[in-house]
Fold these 2 entries.
Entry 1:
Amino acid sequence: MTSADCVVRSLRRLITCRGPIPKRKESLADLGVIDNAWVASHRGKIVYAGEEPGFLRQVKVEKEAVWVDGSGSIGLPGFVDSHTHLPFAGTREEEFLLRLKGATYEQLASRGMGIRTTVEATRKTDRDELVALCLGRLDEMLLQGTTTVEAKSGYGLDLETEIKQLEALEEAAARHPVDIVPTFMGAHEIPPEFRGRSGEYVDFLISEVIPEVKKRGLAEFFDVFCERGVFSVDETRRLVEAAKEMGFKIKIHSDEFTALGGTELAAAAGARSAEHLIAVTEEGIRALAGSATAAVLLPGVSFFLMLEKRAPARKLIAAGAAVALATDFNPGSSMLDSMPFVIQLGVYTLRMTVEEAISAATANGAYAAGREDVAGTIEPGKNMDIVLCDVHDYPSLIYHVARNPVRHVIKKGKIVVRDGVRVSF
Ligand code: NIG
Ligand code: FE
């Protein structure tokens, strides 16, 4: 018998997403569904997920245990949002209105707006305010079922503000149940002080900022925006090699608008993920399919920027790439924080199947965020991160558009959202 201090009983259906991660090809559609399921955990880790008879035989429930009635609900792994730009200040409605009048995201960026507007606001905002902004956003995400989030700096572009953003993430993580995977993205844009001198900014990042972030232990991943007008493939390669040498895991924003070869570089460099891929080429797709690098698709960007072009999810899946879905939550290209909505966009706009989109937002999201050992599936040994949705069956999660289906959220064995309301303790 194994002890349990948290039990979810009698779920109508449990979507476990169990099995080897990352999921590729047909396995992406395998949700590992268990009907009439019981899930139990001890000290935040799952000890049992299966049918009632097995539970009764194998699990001894402690006296003070938390019980959650799952009857009438569908249970899923907590969503893993594997790409966000969480610690930013200010918003960009002005730019949004200019886009509605026909300006493109890239045109606005080349006029000094875009990311640089948010850099200005973030530099002026103090650390405590940034922490408060992050905590509020994490609450919103949690209410929609996100239990793990990757979060990038990159709105400082100087030593002080990049550190401030990463410290804000560290403090927010200590104060909030959502797990944060911190990424240093000082290579998000060329700051105004270095305009026209991107090579010198790359030197500065390599000689001063990356080592300082490492010394302070503030980030696990290094990310860079490889794009026309931002960082070239050669600059990206230099940055990635330096960051790898200093012990960072790698992510690359590649082929968002222009195919430069960043995706091929990500695969060759052993990056954990190549992200965006709206403009990915056949070679890029082949490179991902033959590598351990996940393809993180962000359908919120094509939606929010009203682009006709979308990431070729079907081709990527058919080729065997490890496809994940995430929000890219940021004030310029994807002001959306809802994983249920992103799953819907994966189906409606990228033509993923219902099952593929769910796996891509859980199991493969965990892989892309480097958390496959603890998150993304409901199996013994993983964190008890489980979302209960009051829908008849899982296809309703996609069928009923723009509704938050999340009723309860359990994070590491504690109820953090009950009946749609955040529970603090
Ligand atoms: O992922 N591509 C670069 N970074 C973000 C946009 C950030 C912004 O516009 O503030 C993205 O799309
Ligand atoms: Fe991004």
Entry 2:
Amino acid sequence: MGSIPPKLISKIAELREAVAALRRQGKTIGFVPTMGALHEGHLSLVRQAAGECGATVVSIYVNPTQFGPNEDFSKYPRALDDDLALLAGCGTAIVFTPTDATMYRPGHATWVVPGDVAEPLEGQCRPDHFRGVATIVLKLLNLVQPDAAYFGQKDFQQSLVIRRMAADLNVPVEIRVCPTVREPDGLAMSSRNRYLSPDVRRRATMLWRSLELARHRVDSGLRDAAEIVSRMRAMIDTLPGARIDYVVLVDPDTLRPVERVERPTLAALAVRIENTRLIDNCILEPRG
Ligand code: PAF
């Protein structure tokens, strides 16, 4: 059976009309916002949305306002034809691909400024990143008005920021966070993995191995957070060309540092390997 190509829409009025038509057919709407360069991680979100909702809308938009002045906005991978082919196989109804002028009309001056959960970790390393993310996600949610929106756990802090934004601003949407999808050697899938040379790509698996190390230490009874972090850092420091932005054990609801791993704890890290910045995380679950 051939796959049905999604409807490709770039104008707001057309998007609203297409979503309204799906609603008239009695369909619930699942929404997956993306910046394109899709990989299996995105497709797992699309499949989850398709399994739980009557119709799925995917947006592909590289949002300039979430990139800092020295970040990779201009070289962020763009692969629309490949993305559309991948989405056709996942039962997507609509792909929304707005331009910058559509998303930020001249004189745009209103921003969503997220609170405390946006401040540590990525917020320290990428000032204004979450202001850009929260603003574009709210705009997209206002345009699509989905029943549920799907995000990946790899961007754990982003999903917390969005959950808080939706709750604080009474956005009528269920925020669903789905597990990180990994390559067979453990590397978290990311559009930015395309930047990695084969050699750096091989070295990058060390990030996952450091999270596994933390997990094993917790499984074998170690509870001291500073000790676990120091072992993770020591492992990452053996990587030639690696620079650690952060390696932390924090409370998964508040992102505040913990001293002991006595309940589910987020281990999160951001590391630059040569010119590429990678993030990853896992939840440590102490037993007994
Ligand atoms: O996670 C992403 O790809 C982006 O931050 C998002 C949520 C699509 C907003 O631009």
